[in-house]
Each structure stands twice: as C-alpha cells, then as structure tokens.
Design a protein that fits this description.
Blueprint lengths: L4 H6 L1 E12 L5 E3 L6 E6 L4 E7 L13 H8 L2 E11 L2 E9 L8 E9 L2 E5 L3 E2 L6 E10 L2
Antiparallel strand pairs: 1-2, 1-3, 1-10, 3-4, 4-5, 5-6, 6-7, 7-8, 8-10, 9-10
C-alpha cells in the first residue's frame, strides 16, 4: 500500500502559534487563549495523538496547592487530551480516550485541517466552546517543530 502523503506530513510534533475564536452569532474574532498561547500537538505513526494547550498568562497559585478558585481558573486556561486519530479528506478526528475535562473522554473531536507551509490550521465545526459554552469556531494554528 502506498504511503499517504497527508498522514506523512502530519506526523511529528507541532507547537501552538494561535487560537482564534470566531463567535458564530456576531462574527467577532478573539484570541481564545490570549495573544501568546503555549502548546503542543503530536501525531504518531501508530495512529495516536496528544495535545496540551495553555494560556501564556496563567496565574500561579499563591501556594503549593491551588485554592478552589485558583484551580477553577487553571482548568479554564488549559485543553489537554489524547487518543487515536483518523483522517478522512480534509478532516482529522481525534478519538479521545483521556482528557483534562472528563466530559470529552469517549468523544470524537473532529477538526477541519489545512496546511500552509510549515503550519497546520485545525478548525472546529461550529460548537460550544469548552470554556464559556458559546457557539463558535476555534481555529488552532500550529507550526511544525523540525
């Protein structure tokens, strides 16, 4: 069976450049994770993926153990999950088997993707965002680590 060039191009580790949130109702665009988000997504040849994305302006807890309020803020400023992935056309589906938010475990997270040079743009379909629940499209842009 010939190699899949899309899959081959996808393999490896990518670093997060931006997360743009487009509100479906208003069309307003915002930096969902702030202007300088930090994160990585990794696609392995055996069909597994992992991602962790955080806001760069996360506040450190006052002590070694976060208060309930601090913990809630930290939870709202991270997205992390892993599982298998499948590719069909211009869609990649992450079959989540572990996640920072247990409501994502066991779900399928489908992203519409497009390559642009050494970057990949992964966009959600219109759906409630995981922090505020507003209907939006989130586009995550990653750059390939060489």
């Amino acid at each position: 069976m010939p190699a899949d060039p899309t899959r081959e191009r996808l393999l490896g580790t990518w670093t997060l450049v931006a997360v743009i949130n487009t509100d479906v109702a208003s069309g307003e665009k915002t930096d969902f994770f702030g202007p300088d988000p930090v994160g990585y997504i990794h696609y392995a040849a055996e069909g597994r993926m992992m991602v962790i994305n955080v806001r760069s302006d996360r506040a450190r807890p006052a002590g070694a153990t976060p208060s309930a309020r601090e913990a809630a803020e930290l939870l709202r400023s991270v997205v992390a999950y892993g599982g298998e992935y499948t590719i069909e056309g211009n869609e990649i589906t992450h079959h989540v088997d572990i996640s920072w938010n247990e409501s994502w475990t066991g779900t399928k997270q489908t992203r519409i993707f497009r390559f642009e040079g050494d970057r990949i743009h992964l966009s959600t379909k219109p759906s409630p965002d995981p922090v505020h629940g507003r209907l939006s499209v989130r586009t995550m842009t990653f750059e390939k680590i060489k």
